[in-house]
Amino acid sequence: MPGLGCPTAGWSATHTPQTADQHAVMMLDVGSVHAMEATVETTGVKREAVVAVLREDGRILVILRGPQARQPGHWAPPAGTIEAGERQQDALVREVQEELGLRVAPLAKVWESATDDGDFVLHWWTAAVEGGELVLDPGEVSEVRWVTAEEFMELQPTFPGDHSFFTDVLPKL
Q: Partner of 25 at 20 to 30 A CA spacing, among 42, 82, 92, 120?
C-alpha cells in the first residue's frame, strides 16, 4: 500500500495532539460515524455521515477517536459528516485525507446504519488506499491500528452499533 507500508499484526501508529485543528470524521466503510458532530436539524431530519472501510491483508483500519472528536476515546473505523450538497463518495475522500493524510478511491457502498444515539445515518463505504502518507489529525485521531474483526471485538471502548458491521457485514465482503 503506497505510503502506508504493509500492515502486520500489532501494527499501529500514534500521534500526540499538538494542534487544535478540527475536522469532522466519517469515512470508509468499516467505521462508525461517531466522530461526527452530534446535531439534528430542527426539522427532525437526521444528519448523514460516511464510514471508511479500508482493508489490507484481512485487516481493517480503525482509529482511536481523538480529544476533539465526538465521543473521544472510542475505537471505530474512520468516519465523518457529509457536507451540504456533497456526494457520499466525495465526503469519504475528503474525510480520510483530512484525518489520516491518505488518498483513497471509493469502491462501493456496503451498508447503511444509524449511530447508537440515532442522530446520524451512516453510509459505510469500502475504499482503496491509493497513496499519501499516514499523518494523523491530532484532534480527531489519537491512534490507528490494522485489526481483524476478532481483534476489533476485543478493543475497548467501541460503539455497539459497529459490532454488527464486523460480525454480519464484513464477513460477506
A: 42
